[in-house]
Amino acid sequence: MEKYIIRGGRRLEGSVQIGGAKNAVLPLMAAALMAPGTSVIHRVPRIMDVETMVQVLAALGAEVAWAGPDALEIFPGLNLGWEAPDALIREMRASIQVLGPLLARLGRVKVFQPGGCAIGPRPIDFHIRGMEALGARQIGEGGCILMEAGKLHGAEIMLDFPSVGATEN
User: Fold this and answer.
1) 18 vs 45: CA distance, rounded Å
2) Residue 2: which residues within 8 A CB-CB, separation 6 or more?
3) How far is CA 18 from CA 15, 44, 70, 72, in A?
């Protein structure tokens, strides 16, 4: 393990470039679907999960482009689709993050059960119950989640145990 030993007598100065975090960037990418214009996210790591989310957003109809080595521009456009692509959703757990933004913007959403979780099964019922508490209703059963909502409203949502993903959604 590396370590730094600092002996007094000299001032410690300098700067360190902090990279972006996947778990912060993926929900921001999904949230950009709700914005009326172009969102620019900086310090985006160029990793497989980010590239998969780029493909998910593009398949939904958003314009997504790299604007430099670590900046991503997302424009949802006017013809955003409400059905997330099955094959891409099954690749990555974080793809469930499009559930809330699509429901909020379009009033309906269809997503499949997400995959890609190496630490074992993590059900998404908290996401669904949260959307229902906000006024959405689930209208489909089976291998996909099909939900509709008129006007969503604020609500107090209690989770059985902490869920960062459901809270973000």
Assistant:
1) 11
2) none
3) 9, 11, 12, 17
Strands (E) across 3-100 are located at: 39-41, 63-66, 72-75
How does pLDDT run along the chain (169 residues), one tens digit per residue? 788 887 888 887 899 888 889 889 999 999 999 999 999 999 999 999 999 999 999 999 999 999 999 999 999 988 999 998 888 877 777 788 999 999 999 999 998 876 655 545 556 788 889 999 999 999 866 678 899 998 999 999 988 888 888 888 8
Beta bridge partners of 83: 110
Residues whose CB is less than 8 angstroms from the CB of residue 63 and which lie 6 or more positions away in sequence, other chains included: 73, 74, 75, 77
β partners of residue 110: 83, 146
User: In 3D, which of 100, 126, 86, 77 has the Cα closest to residue 28?
Assistant: 100
In the chain, alpha helices (H):
22-31, 48-59, 86-89, 99-106, 125-133, 164-168
For the annotated catalytic residues, the residue numbers are: 117
| pTM (2 d.p.) | 0.82
